[in-house]
Amino acid sequence: MPPAGPARRTLLALGTGALAAPALAQGPNPGKFPDRPIRLIVPWPPGGSADAQLRSLAEISARALGQPVLVENRPGASGTLGAQFLTTQARPDGHTVGQMHMSIVRRPFLVRTPPWDPVNDFSHIIGLCGWMFGIVVKADGPIRSFQDYIAWARANPGRLTYATSGIATTNHLAMEEIAAREKIDIVHVPYRASNEAAVAVASGEVMSVADSSAWAPLVEGGQLRLICAWTAERSPRFPDAPTLRELGHDMVITSPYGISGPKGMDPGVVRVLHDAFHAALMDPANAAVRAQFDMPLEYYPTAEYRQFIARRAEYEQAMARRLNLRID
């Protein structure tokens, strides 16, 4: 946790640990790939923005691949159970891939025994898009702006609760950074997914949610209020919500994600998957899903995506050291 400012508290615990990676199997002949359905592991419950975008991607890419692309939800452990499966059980034949996101890149630097190397223990295929994050409160509550949010936290140390989709997620660490800068004591309440967290705010279980835009329908429906967005510019969908930059914090947070597979995949298979996923990403139907959740396009081809993951791994390691972050 950050050394500056009062300590923040986190409710609930997160188990860790992973099995050693099995011996790699020989990759398939890419000319015959795929010869059966492909599993796309989504490490969140159904219903969230990433789940919707990846389900659309799976449906569209199946047409080019000639095989179904079946979404398999594996929620829990801040979205890292899919990575655990890819590194310990999945064969590198291209028929099992999963979402690669920042919590997977970050996790090895938060635990005593790193479960994987985020750069070298995966076959990185394609970068897709990011999220629009923001802080949301109950519409009929006492907090109506970001300034109100900070003032309430200062007046009520240790009582302002905020939900995220998990411990050590990008949005959790961003809130830790904001709390350290503002010198406030707030309480983190992790949920399994951003849509569950948004509902928890609407029902009064927690006071706020800091997460991706699964909260958008509840904001548009009048149950919740968006008090700030973490994008570079104001969202056209929510033009009244200021950005963090406008509020004095030079922070832009989109947390780009993509698709990766087990270590050792055949380059020809990776190319087939990249081309099918890229075509699906650019399809108007997938663009419509991204627009629904205000998800910025963050496309990287295979080589560039691996380089991006390597850069992010260096950044996340430095951040974990600077903030003295540990989850075990």
UniProtKB/TrEMBL annotation:
Domain of life of the native organism: Bacteria
Family annotation (CDD domains): PBP2_Bug_TTT
Keyword Signal: yes
Pfam families: TctC
Cleaved signal peptide residues: 1-25
Keywords: Signal
Family: Belongs to the UPF0065 (bug) family.
Official protein name in the record: Tripartite tricarboxylate transporter substrate binding protein
UniProt organism field: Paracraurococcus ruber
Lineage: Bacteria, Pseudomonadati, Pseudomonadota, Alphaproteobacteria, Acetobacterales
